[in-house]
Amino acid sequence: MKIVIPGGTGQVGTVLNRALSAAGHEVTVLSRQPSRPGEVPWDGRTVGPWAEVIDGSDVVINLAGRSVSCRYTAPHLQAMMDSRVRSTRAVGEAIAAAAHPPRVWLQMSTATIYAHRFDAPNDERTGVIGGAEPGVPGYWAYSVDIAKAWEREQANADTPHTRKVALRSAMVMSPDRGGVFDVLLRLARLGLGGPVAGGAQYVSWIHDHDFARAVQFLTARDDIAGPVNLAAPGPLPQRMFMHALRTAWGVPVGLPATKGMAGLGAFALRSDTELLLKSRRVIPGRLLDAGFGFRYPQWPAAAGDLVGRVRSRRRRRRTGPTAPSGADRTPATP
To answer: Which residues form the DUF1731 domain (predicted)?
Structure first.
């Protein structure tokens, strides 16, 4: 198949490009700063010559949007909103104008759309949309507003011949440098991976192999449209999440952190405490109902695999290039 990935140069795009290319698909990435074969320039805001690769493609997977790993200042939040809405609008306009539109448009969204809660998990049918929770910082509602605007822009696009799926994704865990797992593992190795503010807040996540397999599954299933949660069925409290990661690496202790300490750490990392403190308890109801089988449904096994791949990469750097082991290859089929 011909697959186009707008905004596909980041961590999640790298995961998908690797898996889809390994499966034999022709992948084109739309990038603001193309630097590799298979990358086409676009501005992420307006329809331009890049739209030619949309016309005649089979699948579009739009991942474009400013990174959430930043301080949640008003300008940064506005940039997050604008980058997501404008890029989604441009992709929709390109699909609408195509003589041969793609049969499916997978649009990145986020599990952050759901409410901060501890009492029950959020699935697509019964989950509570956030934005009005008591006792949380008011600016958290803006993240929910961004997610809703993101999905609304896709839903309103006039693309009657293209099936639309909104990917409400949890954090994608991969051993690639610069990703969220890389940051969390570094904290654990330094002995800083303990409970944050008590650690009761839930962490939702998905292993990179399962993320890529789920995307291929949704591409093939013509009967699934609308919001779909891309999250492993085993969310767990942050203290248990980090304990499993420390165990996988072999670090016996993780220093706890108060809310104030988390704020200082987030400031040093140019990030925001919402990423640490919001309880994201999300489960993949529609994927499970459709028969998708997770290879890594629980975090301890997933953490063990990811740690093993990190260590394998380190060994290869020390000893020179060798053929990748099976654990390092992204599965090419669902």
So the answer is: 274-305
Cα–Cα distance between 62 and 310 in angstroms, integer?
A: 28
**C-alpha–C-alpha distance, residues 120 and 304, integer Å:** 27
DSSP summary character for residue 330: P
Q: Could you read off the pLDDT of 264-315 as tens digits, one per residue?
A: 666 556 667 788 899 999 999 999 999 999 999 999 999 999 999 999 999 9
- The C-alpha atoms of residue 108 and residue 84 are separated, in whole angstroms, by 9
* Dist CA 157 CA 243 (whole Å): 44
Amino acid at 63: L
Distance CA(63)–CA(20), nearest Å, equals: 15
* Cβ–Cβ under 8 Å, residues 172 and 213: no
Single out the residue of 107, 129, 106, 108 nearest to residue 117, CA to CA: 129
Report which of 216, 114, 218 is spatially closest to residue 166, judged by C-alpha positions: 218
Alpha-carbon distance 20 to 155, whole Å? Answer: 25
- C-beta of residue 213 within 8 angstroms of C-beta of residue 161: no
Summarize pLDDT for 86-124 with one digit per residue, the tens: 999 999 999 999 999 999 999 999 999 999 999 999 999
Other C-beta atoms closer than 10 Å to the C-beta of 319 total 8
Task: Report the predicted TM-score, pTM, of the whole model to 2 decimal places.
Answer: 0.93
Q: What is the DSSP string of 236-283?
A: EEHHHHHHHHHHHHT------B-HHHHHHHHHHTT--THHHHS---B-
Residue bearing tokens 């501005």: 43
Report the helix count and the strand count for the chain, using DSSP H and E: 11, 11
Task: Report angle CA 7, 238, 73 to the nearest 5 degrees.
Answer: 50
